[in-house]
Design goal:
By secondary structure, this protein is α/β, with parallel strands linked by helices. The protein contains eleven helices and ten strands. It has two domains: 187 residues, 3-Layer(aba) Sandwich (Rossmann fold); 38 residues, no CATH class. Helix content is 39%, strand content 22%. The N and C termini lie far apart (53 Å).
């Protein structure tokens, strides 16, 4: 299984006064089994890129392969429902998509739409809701009774009920408080490590990229300008400055120390490791 883009262009409203090229000549291989961050400035093509993964958008030119599916320019993939079952796409503010009377009915809707009997669909929905941390006593509540963070978890449960092998998340922590955002990112980490789900996250939050992601894809004006592991990405101070990316606190602190003549190993990317290194350096005095 793989995710591969081959010379993909995407043009909105072609041959009109509103024509806009959102992606240009994108060739990219995304590793299965990893958590990959998709980053870039507003308008760089991030959301357009990920919406190709389940056929929501089709290339204007080129093609991509996702698992056993090929998505070509202007040609809807065969068995599109199965593709969308394998690739779960969670939109920004996904909680606005909740529509059923109760949480259990909302999450069971997807499996039922694929022909699963109601009783089994509710069992699948139960497992999905428990996975995302919803208390069983809340299953019969209306989505309107939940907090924003809980609603988002229910929306994600609705995707998980389809048993996707790939989960694509567009700014999944937008609008959440710091604790809610951390809890959400821990959920994605668990889904990746314990369930083996490949995770792609469109984000502007560099703290989350550093703490939770394995790899980073950078888009600029519709082009992929970098694809690397996170350690290499955060070594690239010059790029982050040029792109006006605020580095994570620990990276900024390390750089400040280096300007004062105190250097740290490039693998020091957590507070615990940093404290350990500082203690070691003090002990050598």
């Amino acid at each position: 299984m793989s995710i591969h883009f081959e010379k993909v262009d995407h043009i909105y409203s072609p041959n009109s006064v509103f024509e806009f090229q959102a992606l240009e000549d994108v060739s990219l291989d995304i590793n299965i089994g990893k958590i990959t961050a998709i980053i870039g400035a507003t308008g760089s093509g991030k959301t357009t890129l990920v919406q190709h993964l389940n056929g929501l958008l089709l290339p204007s030119k080129g093609f991509l392969t996702v698992n056993d599916f090929t998505i070509k320019a202007d040609e809807k993939p065969k068995n599109i429902k199965e593709l969308r079952k394998q690739v779960g796409l969670v939109f920004q503010f996904a909680e606005y998509q909740l529509f059923e009377e109760t949480l259990i009915k909302d999450v069971a809707f997807g499996p039922k739409n694929f022909g699963v009997e109601e009783k089994e669909a509710e069992m699948i929905a139960t497992r999905a809701l428990i996975t995302v941390g919803i208390d069983p006593k809340d299953f019969v509540k209306s989505p309107l009774e939940l907090s924003g963070g809980q609603k988002r978890r229910v929306a994600i449960a609705g995707i998980l009920a389809m048993s996707p092998s790939i989960l694509v998340l567009d700014e999944p922590t937008a609008g959440l408080d710091p604790q809610g955002a951390k809890s959400m990112m821990e959920l994605f980490k668990m889904l990746n490590k314990e369930k083996g789900i490949t995770i792609l996250i469109v984000t502007h939050n560099m703290e989350h990229v550093l703490e939770y992601c394995d790899e980073v894809v950078v888009l600029e004006k519709g082009k992929v300008i970098m694809h690397t592991d996170k350690k290499q990405f955060f070594k690239n101070d010059q790029y982050m400055e040029k792109a006006s990316i605020d580095p994570p606190i620990i990276i900024a602190f390390k750089k400040m120390c280096e300007e004062k003549g105190v250097t740290f190993d490039s693998d020091v990317l957590t507070i615990d490791k940093l404290v350990s290194e500082i203690v070691k350096k003090r002990g050598r005095r």
